[in-house]
Design a protein that fits this description.
Shape: globular
Strand content: 15-25%
Radius of gyration: 23 Å
Number of strands: 22
Oligomer: single chain
Distance between the termini: 60 Å
Length: 566
Amino acid sequence: MKRREFLGAMAGAAALAGCDSRSPIEGGFAGIDVESGHRLRQPFGGRQAASGGPARRVRVLIAGGGVAGLAAARSLRLAGIEDFCLLDLEAEAGGNSRGGAIGGIAHPLGAHYLPVPGDHAHEVQDLLEEFGLRSRVSGRWRYDERHLCHSPQERLFFRGAWQDSLLPQGDVGAATRDQYRRFAAEVEAVRRALPFRIPTLRASRLDGLLELDALPFGRWLDQRGLDDQHLRWYLSYCCRDDYGAGVAHVSAWAGLHYFAARHGFRAPGDGAPDVTAGASAEAETEPVLTWPEGNAWLTRRLSRPLGDRLQVRQLVTQIVDTRSQVEVESLDLASGQTRRWVADRCIVALPTFVAARVVHGPPAALVSAAGQLRHAPWLVANVHLKAPLAVGPGAAPAWDNVLYGARGLGWVDARHQSLDPTPGPTVLSWYRALGPGTDVALPADGNGSGSAGGDGNGNGNGNGNGDQDTDARRQLLERPWSSWRDEMLAELSIPHPDLPALATRIDITRYGHAMAIPSPGTLARLGIHSRITAGRLAFAHGDWSGYSIFEEAFTRGHLAGEWAAT
């Protein structure tokens, strides 16, 4: 589909979605208590006095119940420490890995899969073994196929039809295929030469990586003449999907990281899969674990053994290390009263910008990280369909479905993992990143044009993007639910004109600071520390790795728990 044809189709679909009142769609904002989180911006002088009685004393206090906080709690339990408490803002722990349900159908509110972890993420491997997701058979590890993503895994709507895999193929031309092969060779070269690791703290050194970290990914591609519009669209899609920002706004280290640290990159048709590395012959396909509710399947199992040690609806407002003990205050959002806690040690499993607000006398490393890291806003829309979509031309329906040139990142089907072959209602989870360089997703047209942020050719330098982030967050909060609804329906109606008539409800979850953006210089500023501690405090969050994935947050939380248990 040509650029002008795509834009015309989008406009027509928007008119359809916004004006057709024959099938009213219910819904609204759900999943995140935005107003409660924003109370940290306000002075707390008018809050109610602390509840009567002494402060509750525990050996370890964990502030933050995302993946890192839940991993820390598990780590304490493995060490035989049961005297701890975990405080979380939301009604359910899990952070960006929580789930919901519409019409009895489970769906993710954020993170929706976990790649099969490599040997450097052995803490995550141990967790999967504990949960029965992997076991050793005849001396080799085998994953439970019920939880591996069922086939077909992914497809791309490209030139009016669906194709297997997300890398544009078909009659893309010899020049495009040559650039696919050249990029594959570049990835393999850095993969062999440099210690790319997941989690990042397992890297043996930083030299070499820091050279890539200093350079925008788009500029790195420019230097190698990798300017093909289809390759650039695919890499831009990967950066938006992985980091919430475009290729001009993430570092070359980040742009290469997932390929070099996991499964490499293979041009279509270039050899058989490397089974030992868990890769397939397609460039972007790898074995992943997934569930209808996404990674909430994992976080709910991490939460289950905690009982009343997990205290939800607690807004942590102050953490003070007095050198003899740690004193913590939280606002109980149910009662409106302040609660006080005293602990021997505290694990601060909060985003860096939140931790810097609540930690009294924050250490220099925290102040630096909070001041330098930028976070991408995100939106997740879950749409309930009363019946399956009509099958379009080309590849069969898949778990992950992406539109070439669209602003959205595509959608996953909650029923894809079901073993019931009977067609029926389902929920589609649609993702939209709002970080810098994500608003204009169409690729360069071959004559040097691209988005204003430099994502067409990667010439943006990443400066002044704080205003872009602020504007995106303002847009996220101020646009009404109906506006996001219409944008989603317009986009998805391109391949599925029957979708608006089948949709019955759309719940939209907004994340103002969904994930850290690994912009140029992030790795140099953060380093690769295995633990970040100061006095009686340990800091554990995916932010300390400069980007957000389960393996990073879980490993840092686990190590912080080990520290607190000593």
